[in-house]
Each structure stands twice: as structure tokens, then as C-alpha cells.
Amino acid sequence: QKEVEQDPGPLSVPEGAIVSLNCTYSNSAFQYFMWYRQYSRKGPELLMYTYSSGNKEDGRFTAQVDKSSKYISLFIRDSQPSDSATYLCAMNPPNFGNEKLTFGTGTRLTIIP
Amino acid sequence: NAGVTQTPKFQVLKTGQSMTLQCAQDMNHEYMSWYRQDPGMGLRLIHYSVGAGITDQGEVPNGYNVSRSTTEDFPLRLLSAAPSQTSVYFCASSRGSIGYGYTFGSGTRLTVV
């Protein structure tokens, strides 16, 4: 079993819809949780960074962490065609920071105009 | 500010050949890492460095070597290419450990025939 599980999709939603992307993990020691966005044939770019449980909002994006359930989510409000990309969750293992991130496999999202 | 620069962008190798993937960053980041990305496998860490002269192995280090003689450069060497090393390779750098995300390069697409 992988340490981080992410539904690969693909996920297609109409423009303007609310998108929910999720990851589950098995290591309860994970402390920092990130979401990266990757456009086709590009490198990932950091979208959101959260620590511990709770919500963090940045514009149309909300990251949610539930450590008791080992479950993290990324919500995209008022989705736009420019949000079409692969979204990867990432988290750091115990005793390490960013130098050893564990990534999910990514969810491919398409926003239909 | 160029960020993280990877060269070449594309490469075809024959089995048994060796080559070096170049990575340079101009942000004075201490942390640098190499990942490979394969369909259904996500991003997997090959090697990482927390500063000049300091390197360590990641999840899939076999068949690869690294060195970090300067803060700016972190080349990845394939010793004897195998078809299993066909992948997209990403170099990433980070300012520090806890609390900072990675900046990724645009990737090198490598095919080993």
C-alpha cells in the first residue's frame, strides 16, 4: 500500500462548478501538507501549503486537512478552464522537511467551458 | 530570475550509454532534489541535497549518481542507461526545510532504447 493515495481521475467538470480533490495517507506523523498544480509538459508549481488540521483559503482555492482521518482536500470554487491541470498532493515524512516529500500520483482535472 | 533550469529538455539514449542531466538554480536555495515522474507512479525521489557537498539517496537511487560542488548546480548522472530509466526527470530547489515549497524545473524527457 502506498503511503499517499490519490484518485488519478480523470475528472471533468463544467466551468463554474466547485471541484473537490482528495488524498488519503497512512503515516500519522506527516506534518506539512501541500498541493501542487502541474500543467501538461510543465513542472509542478506550489499551490497551497498547510500545517496540521484545519482550513486554509487563498482566493478560489481552499485546502483542508483532517489529521484524525488522515485525509486532505483541495477545493476549487468557480472553476475556470485555466484550472485544467494535474493536481498533486504532497506531504513530508517524519524527521524531514521539503527535502524528502512524498507525492500522490496526481488527479487530472479538466474544466469544460 | 531564471528559477530552476534543466538541460537538455529531450534526450534519446541507447541502452548502456551514460549521460548527465544538468540542473542549475539562481535563487541561492540550499535544498535541491531530483525526481522522476512515471505514469501511475507519481513523482519519486531519486537523490537530494541539503547543501553544497551534502547529498543523500531517495526512494529510487539505483543507476544514478549526483554531486553538489556548488550551491547553484546539482547534476544527475546516469551511469549505464536502461529502458527502465525512460521517464520525465524533474529537478527542484527549495529555500529551506519546514515551511517552504519546492520550485521545479520544466523537466527532461528521457527515452532509453
Description:
The complex is a heterodimer of chains A (113) and B (113). With 113 residues, chain A is mostly beta strands. Helix content of chain A is 0%, strand content 53%. Chain A has no helices and 11 strands. The radius of gyration of chain A is 13 Å and the shape is globular. Chain B has 113 residues and is mostly beta strands. The model of chain B has no long low-confidence stretch (mean pLDDT 94). In chain B, strands 2, 4, 5, 6, 9, 10 and 11 form a 7-stranded mixed β-sheet that branches. A 4-stranded antiparallel β-sheet of chain B has the order 1-3-8-7, with no helix packed on it. Chain B has strands at residues 4-7, 10-13, 19-25, 31-38, 42-51, 54-57, 64-66, 76-78, 87-94, 103-104, 108-112. Chain B contains no helices and 11 strands. The interface between A and B is medium-sized, with 26 and 29 residues.
Distance, first to last CA of chain B: 36 Å
Overall spatial form of chain A = globular
* Helical run tally of chain B: 0
Question: How much helical structure, as a percent, in the residues of chain B?
Answer: under 10%
Throw out a few tags for this protein.
heterodimer, A: 113 residues, mainly beta, B: 113 residues, 4-stranded antiparallel beta sheet
In terms of topology, how is this protein built?
The complex is a heterodimer of chains A (113) and B (113).
Chain A: E1 4-6, E2 11-14, E3 19-25, E4 32-38, E5 45-51, E6 54-58, E7 61-66, E8 71-76, E9 85-91, E10 102-103, E11 107-112
Parallel strand pairs in A: 2-11
Antiparallel strand pairs in A: 1-3, 3-8, 4-5, 4-9, 6-7, 7-8, 9-10, 9-11
Chain B: E1 4-7, E2 10-13, E3 19-25, E4 31-38, E5 42-51, E6 54-57, E7 64-66, E8 76-78, E9 87-94, E10 103-104, E11 108-112
Parallel strand pairs in B: 2-11
Antiparallel strand pairs in B: 1-3, 3-8, 4-5, 4-9, 5-6, 7-8, 9-10, 9-11
